[in-house]
Amino acid sequence: MQRRLRAAAQPLVNRFGPERKTAFVLSGGGSLGAVQVGMLRALLDAEICPDLILGCSVGSINGAGFAADPSLRGVARLDRIWRRLAAGDPDLMPGRLIPLAVQLARKGPALHDPGPLEQLLSDELPVDHFSDLQVPFQCVATDLDTATEHWFERGPLVPALMASASLPAVYPPREIGGQTYIDGGVLNEVHTARAVELGATDLYVLHVGHLDDHLIDVQRPFDGALRAYWTHRRFRLEDDLERVPDHCIIHRLPAGSTPKLRFDDFARGPELAEQAEQATKRYLQAESGIEPGPGPDSGTEADHPVYPTERTV
Protein backbone atom coordinates (compact mmCIF):
# COMPACT_ATOMS: atom_id res chain seq x y z
CA MET A 1 0.00 0.00 0.00
CA GLN A 2 2.79 2.44 0.91
CA ARG A 3 4.48 1.78 -2.43
CA ARG A 4 1.26 2.46 -4.35
CA LEU A 5 0.65 5.74 -2.51
CA ARG A 6 4.16 6.94 -3.17
CA ALA A 7 3.95 5.88 -6.81
CA ALA A 8 0.71 7.81 -7.24
CA ALA A 9 2.35 10.90 -5.75
CA GLN A 10 5.50 10.55 -7.83
CA PRO A 11 4.56 13.09 -10.56
CA LEU A 12 4.06 15.80 -7.92
CA VAL A 13 7.25 14.80 -6.13
CA ASN A 14 9.22 15.03 -9.37
CA ARG A 15 7.80 18.45 -10.15
CA PHE A 16 7.96 20.16 -6.79
CA GLY A 17 10.35 18.04 -4.73
CA PRO A 18 14.14 18.15 -4.56
CA GLU A 19 16.35 17.14 -7.45
CA ARG A 20 16.15 13.38 -7.88
CA LYS A 21 19.19 11.21 -7.18
CA THR A 22 19.15 7.44 -7.60
CA ALA A 23 21.04 5.12 -5.28
CA PHE A 24 21.54 1.37 -5.47
CA VAL A 25 21.88 -0.07 -1.95
CA LEU A 26 23.35 -3.58 -1.94
CA SER A 27 23.10 -5.67 1.21
CA GLY A 28 25.25 -8.50 2.48
CA GLY A 29 24.24 -12.10 1.96
CA GLY A 30 27.27 -14.32 1.43
CA SER A 31 26.71 -17.09 -1.08
CA LEU A 32 23.33 -15.58 -1.97
CA GLY A 33 25.05 -12.55 -3.49
CA ALA A 34 24.52 -13.86 -7.01
CA VAL A 35 20.93 -12.63 -6.60
CA GLN A 36 22.23 -9.09 -7.02
CA VAL A 37 23.71 -9.90 -10.43
CA GLY A 38 20.23 -10.69 -11.73
CA MET A 39 18.77 -7.58 -10.12
CA LEU A 40 21.43 -5.37 -11.70
CA ARG A 41 20.79 -6.87 -15.12
CA ALA A 42 17.06 -6.19 -14.75
CA LEU A 43 17.67 -2.60 -13.64
CA LEU A 44 19.83 -1.95 -16.70
CA ASP A 45 17.19 -3.54 -18.92
CA ALA A 46 14.72 -1.01 -17.51
CA GLU A 47 17.26 1.79 -18.16
CA ILE A 48 17.58 2.58 -14.46
CA CYS A 49 21.08 3.82 -13.68
CA PRO A 50 22.51 4.90 -10.32
CA ASP A 51 24.06 8.20 -9.30
CA LEU A 52 25.41 6.48 -6.18
CA ILE A 53 26.14 2.90 -5.12
CA LEU A 54 26.46 1.70 -1.53
CA GLY A 55 27.61 -1.80 -0.63
CA CYS A 56 27.90 -3.97 2.45
CA SER A 57 29.81 -7.27 2.65
CA VAL A 58 29.16 -9.27 -0.53
CA GLY A 59 27.11 -6.31 -1.72
CA SER A 60 30.28 -4.23 -1.59
CA ILE A 61 31.96 -6.64 -4.00
CA ASN A 62 29.05 -6.63 -6.43
CA GLY A 63 28.60 -2.89 -6.00
CA ALA A 64 32.24 -2.12 -6.73
CA GLY A 65 32.23 -4.33 -9.80
CA PHE A 66 29.16 -2.55 -11.13
CA ALA A 67 30.49 0.91 -10.22
CA ALA A 68 33.62 0.15 -12.23
CA ASP A 69 31.56 -0.59 -15.33
CA PRO A 70 27.83 0.20 -14.96
CA SER A 71 26.85 -1.57 -18.15
CA LEU A 72 25.80 -5.00 -19.36
CA ARG A 73 29.49 -5.69 -19.90
CA GLY A 74 30.12 -4.94 -16.22
CA VAL A 75 27.26 -7.20 -15.15
CA ALA A 76 28.66 -9.93 -17.40
CA ARG A 77 31.95 -9.63 -15.53
CA LEU A 78 30.14 -10.09 -12.21
CA ASP A 79 28.27 -13.04 -13.67
CA ARG A 80 31.59 -14.59 -14.68
CA ILE A 81 32.89 -14.21 -11.12
CA TRP A 82 29.84 -15.97 -9.68
CA ARG A 83 30.05 -18.72 -12.29
CA ARG A 84 33.68 -19.25 -11.32
CA LEU A 85 32.63 -19.58 -7.69
CA ALA A 86 29.86 -21.99 -8.66
CA ALA A 87 32.50 -24.15 -10.32
CA GLY A 88 34.75 -24.00 -7.26
CA ASP A 89 37.31 -21.71 -8.94
CA PRO A 90 38.44 -20.68 -6.39
CA ASP A 91 36.94 -22.57 -3.46
CA LEU A 92 36.41 -19.78 -0.95
CA MET A 93 35.27 -22.01 1.90
CA PRO A 94 36.89 -25.44 1.65
CA GLY A 95 36.30 -28.22 4.13
CA ARG A 96 32.52 -28.46 3.86
CA LEU A 97 32.67 -32.19 4.56
CA ILE A 98 34.11 -31.49 8.00
CA PRO A 99 31.34 -30.97 10.61
CA LEU A 100 30.98 -27.33 11.56
CA ALA A 101 31.43 -28.11 15.26
CA VAL A 102 34.84 -29.61 14.46
CA GLN A 103 35.83 -26.62 12.31
CA LEU A 104 34.86 -24.17 15.04
CA ALA A 105 36.93 -26.09 17.60
CA ARG A 106 40.13 -25.53 15.64
CA LYS A 107 42.56 -22.86 16.81
CA GLY A 108 42.98 -19.74 14.75
CA PRO A 109 41.21 -16.43 14.08
CA ALA A 110 38.87 -17.80 11.41
CA LEU A 111 37.70 -20.88 9.52
CA HIS A 112 39.06 -19.85 6.13
CA ASP A 113 41.96 -18.11 4.45
CA PRO A 114 40.85 -14.84 2.77
CA GLY A 115 43.68 -15.09 0.25
CA PRO A 116 41.68 -16.80 -2.54
CA LEU A 117 38.92 -14.18 -2.36
CA GLU A 118 41.43 -11.33 -2.37
CA GLN A 119 43.22 -12.79 -5.39
CA LEU A 120 39.92 -13.29 -7.21
CA LEU A 121 39.02 -9.62 -6.73
CA SER A 122 42.47 -8.47 -7.82
CA ASP A 123 42.21 -10.58 -10.96
CA GLU A 124 38.64 -9.73 -11.93
CA LEU A 125 38.01 -6.11 -10.95
CA PRO A 126 38.99 -3.78 -13.82
CA VAL A 127 40.18 -0.94 -11.53
CA ASP A 128 42.31 -0.71 -8.40
CA HIS A 129 41.18 2.52 -6.73
CA PHE A 130 37.93 4.20 -5.78
CA SER A 131 38.92 7.18 -7.92
CA ASP A 132 38.86 4.98 -11.03
CA LEU A 133 35.22 3.95 -10.61
CA GLN A 134 32.66 5.35 -13.05
CA VAL A 135 29.91 5.79 -10.41
CA PRO A 136 30.47 7.16 -6.89
CA PHE A 137 30.72 4.15 -4.58
CA GLN A 138 31.13 3.58 -0.87
CA CYS A 139 31.35 0.39 1.16
CA VAL A 140 31.03 -0.12 4.88
CA ALA A 141 32.95 -2.15 7.43
CA THR A 142 32.66 -2.40 11.21
CA ASP A 143 35.48 -0.77 13.17
CA LEU A 144 36.22 -3.16 16.02
CA ASP A 145 38.06 -0.56 18.08
CA THR A 146 35.26 2.01 18.10
CA ALA A 147 32.26 -0.29 17.48
CA THR A 148 31.11 2.03 14.70
CA GLU A 149 30.51 1.95 10.97
CA HIS A 150 33.45 2.96 8.82
CA TRP A 151 32.77 4.03 5.24
CA PHE A 152 35.44 3.59 2.61
CA GLU A 153 35.22 5.99 -0.33
CA ARG A 154 38.81 6.58 -1.41
CA GLY A 155 42.09 4.74 -1.69
CA PRO A 156 42.82 1.15 -2.81
CA LEU A 157 39.65 -0.78 -3.59
CA VAL A 158 40.37 -4.44 -2.79
CA PRO A 159 41.50 -3.93 0.85
CA ALA A 160 38.30 -1.98 1.55
CA LEU A 161 36.17 -4.71 -0.01
CA MET A 162 37.95 -7.37 2.01
CA ALA A 163 37.32 -5.41 5.21
CA SER A 164 33.64 -5.02 4.36
CA ALA A 165 33.32 -8.77 3.69
CA SER A 166 35.36 -10.10 6.64
CA LEU A 167 32.57 -12.16 8.13
CA PRO A 168 33.45 -13.02 11.75
CA ALA A 169 34.59 -16.61 12.27
CA VAL A 170 34.61 -17.21 8.50
CA TYR A 171 37.40 -14.72 7.63
CA PRO A 172 39.85 -12.99 9.98
CA PRO A 173 39.57 -9.27 10.77
CA ARG A 174 41.26 -6.90 8.34
CA GLU A 175 43.76 -4.28 9.44
CA ILE A 176 43.98 -1.05 7.45
CA GLY A 177 45.84 2.04 8.61
CA GLY A 178 46.23 0.71 12.13
CA GLN A 179 42.50 0.03 12.53
CA THR A 180 40.85 -3.39 12.70
CA TYR A 181 37.73 -4.05 10.65
CA ILE A 182 35.18 -6.84 10.29
CA ASP A 183 32.13 -7.36 8.11
CA GLY A 184 30.00 -4.24 7.69
CA GLY A 185 26.83 -6.27 8.18
CA VAL A 186 27.61 -6.82 11.84
CA LEU A 187 26.01 -3.45 12.66
CA ASN A 188 23.67 -3.03 9.71
CA GLU A 189 23.28 -4.58 6.27
CA VAL A 190 20.93 -2.27 4.38
CA HIS A 191 22.16 1.30 4.54
CA THR A 192 19.21 3.35 3.39
CA ALA A 193 19.99 6.04 5.96
CA ARG A 194 23.45 6.54 4.48
CA ALA A 195 21.95 6.85 0.99
CA VAL A 196 19.52 9.54 2.16
CA GLU A 197 22.32 11.32 4.01
CA LEU A 198 24.23 11.51 0.72
CA GLY A 199 21.25 13.03 -1.07
CA ALA A 200 19.55 10.00 -2.61
CA THR A 201 15.83 10.32 -3.30
CA ASP A 202 15.16 7.13 -5.27
CA LEU A 203 16.50 4.07 -3.48
CA TYR A 204 16.69 0.63 -5.05
CA VAL A 205 17.40 -1.90 -2.30
CA LEU A 206 19.11 -5.05 -3.56
CA HIS A 207 18.62 -7.18 -0.47
CA VAL A 208 19.38 -10.90 -0.40
CA GLY A 209 19.13 -11.71 3.30
CA HIS A 210 16.28 -13.06 5.40
CA LEU A 211 13.58 -10.76 6.74
CA ASP A 212 10.60 -13.04 7.14
CA ASP A 213 8.58 -12.89 10.33
CA HIS A 214 8.50 -16.69 10.28
CA LEU A 215 9.69 -17.98 13.63
CA ILE A 216 12.61 -20.36 13.67
CA ASP A 217 11.80 -23.70 15.23
CA VAL A 218 14.25 -23.69 18.12
CA GLN A 219 15.56 -27.22 18.51
CA ARG A 220 19.17 -26.39 19.43
CA PRO A 221 20.86 -23.53 21.30
CA PHE A 222 22.21 -22.24 18.00
CA ASP A 223 18.65 -21.91 16.65
CA GLY A 224 17.73 -19.58 19.50
CA ALA A 225 20.75 -17.37 18.86
CA LEU A 226 20.00 -17.31 15.14
CA ARG A 227 16.38 -16.35 15.77
CA ALA A 228 17.50 -13.39 17.88
CA TYR A 229 19.93 -12.35 15.15
CA TRP A 230 17.27 -12.32 12.41
CA THR A 231 14.88 -10.43 14.69
CA HIS A 232 17.48 -7.71 15.20
CA ARG A 233 18.19 -7.42 11.47
CA ARG A 234 14.52 -7.17 10.59
CA PHE A 235 13.89 -4.52 13.23
CA ARG A 236 16.87 -2.43 12.09
CA LEU A 237 15.74 -2.38 8.46
CA GLU A 238 12.11 -1.58 9.25
CA ASP A 239 13.18 1.15 11.67
CA ASP A 240 15.49 2.68 9.07
CA LEU A 241 12.77 2.61 6.41
CA GLU A 242 10.34 4.39 8.74
CA ARG A 243 12.84 7.22 9.02
CA VAL A 244 13.22 7.76 5.29
CA PRO A 245 11.81 11.20 4.32
CA ASP A 246 8.48 11.30 2.48
CA HIS A 247 10.02 12.73 -0.69
CA CYS A 248 12.05 9.54 -1.14
CA ILE A 249 10.88 6.52 -3.10
CA ILE A 250 12.06 3.07 -2.00
CA HIS A 251 12.05 -0.02 -4.20
CA ARG A 252 12.78 -3.29 -2.38
CA LEU A 253 13.60 -5.59 -5.25
CA PRO A 254 12.32 -9.19 -5.15
CA ALA A 255 14.78 -12.05 -5.37
CA GLY A 256 12.37 -14.68 -6.67
CA SER A 257 11.91 -18.25 -5.46
CA THR A 258 15.19 -20.09 -4.97
CA PRO A 259 16.50 -23.45 -3.75
CA LYS A 260 17.77 -24.12 -0.24
CA LEU A 261 21.51 -23.65 0.11
CA ARG A 262 24.21 -24.07 2.71
CA PHE A 263 25.82 -20.81 3.76
CA ASP A 264 29.07 -21.95 2.12
CA ASP A 265 27.52 -23.33 -1.07
CA PHE A 266 28.04 -21.20 -4.19
CA ALA A 267 26.99 -23.87 -6.70
CA ARG A 268 23.56 -22.41 -7.49
CA GLY A 269 24.74 -18.89 -8.23
CA PRO A 270 23.69 -18.78 -11.92
CA GLU A 271 20.22 -20.05 -11.00
CA LEU A 272 19.86 -17.45 -8.26
CA ALA A 273 20.83 -14.68 -10.67
CA GLU A 274 18.38 -15.81 -13.35
CA GLN A 275 15.43 -16.07 -10.97
CA ALA A 276 16.18 -12.70 -9.39
CA GLU A 277 16.41 -11.09 -12.82
CA GLN A 278 13.00 -12.38 -13.87
CA ALA A 279 11.36 -11.44 -10.56
CA THR A 280 12.86 -7.94 -10.65
CA LYS A 281 11.79 -7.42 -14.26
CA ARG A 282 8.21 -8.29 -13.35
CA TYR A 283 8.38 -5.87 -10.44
CA LEU A 284 9.77 -3.02 -12.53
CA GLN A 285 7.38 -3.60 -15.42
CA ALA A 286 4.26 -3.64 -13.27
CA GLU A 287 2.35 -0.41 -13.61
CA SER A 288 1.66 0.03 -9.91
CA GLY A 289 4.24 -2.39 -8.53
CA ILE A 290 3.75 -5.98 -7.42
CA GLU A 291 4.40 -7.53 -4.07
CA PRO A 292 7.84 -9.16 -4.13
CA GLY A 293 7.79 -12.94 -3.92
CA PRO A 294 9.76 -15.09 -1.51
CA GLY A 295 13.45 -14.42 -1.29
CA PRO A 296 16.18 -17.02 -1.23
CA ASP A 297 16.21 -19.78 1.35
CA SER A 298 19.58 -20.80 2.69
CA GLY A 299 19.32 -24.05 4.57
CA THR A 300 22.01 -26.55 5.49
CA GLU A 301 22.66 -30.10 6.38
CA ALA A 302 22.36 -31.10 10.01
CA ASP A 303 25.78 -29.82 11.04
CA HIS A 304 25.52 -26.43 9.31
CA PRO A 305 23.66 -23.26 10.36
CA VAL A 306 20.07 -23.19 9.12
CA TYR A 307 18.64 -19.93 7.85
CA PRO A 308 14.88 -19.27 7.92
CA THR A 309 12.68 -18.62 4.91
CA GLU A 310 12.60 -14.99 3.78
CA ARG A 311 9.86 -12.88 2.28
CA THR A 312 10.54 -9.22 1.55
CA VAL A 313 7.54 -6.96 1.74
**Low-confidence spans:** 1-5, 292-313
Rg (C-alpha, Å): 19 Å
Spatial gap, N to C terminus? 10 Å
Counted by DSSP, the helix tally is 10
Mean pLDDT: 81
**Tally of extended strands?**
8
Topology order in helix (H) and strand (E) letters: HEHEHHHHEEHEEHEHEH
Main structural class: alpha/beta
What overall form do the CA principal axes indicate? globular
- Strand residues, percent: 5-15%
Descriptive tags:
313 residues, alpha/beta, 8-stranded mixed β-sheet, 39% helix, 12% strand, globular, disordered N terminus, disordered C terminus
Explained architecture:
By secondary structure, this protein is α/β, with parallel strands linked by helices. It is built from 10 helices and 8 strands. Helix 2 (34-45) packs antiparallel against helix 4 (72-86), helix 2 (34-45) packs parallel to helix 10 and helix 3 (58-68) packs antiparallel against helix 4 (72-86). The chain is globular, with a radius of gyration of 19 Å. It starts with a helix and ends in a 28-residue tail after the last helix.
Set out the fold topology.
Blueprint: H1 2-16, E1 22-26, H2 34-45, E2 52-56, H3 58-68, H4 72-86, H5 100-105, H6 115-124, E3 137-143, E4 148-152, H7 157-164, E5 174-176, E6 179-183, H8 192-197, E7 202-206, H9 221-242, E8 249-252, H10 269-285
Parallel strand pairs: 1-2, 1-7, 2-3, 7-8
Antiparallel strand pairs: 3-4, 3-6, 5-6
Helix pairs in contact: 2-4, 2-10, 3-4
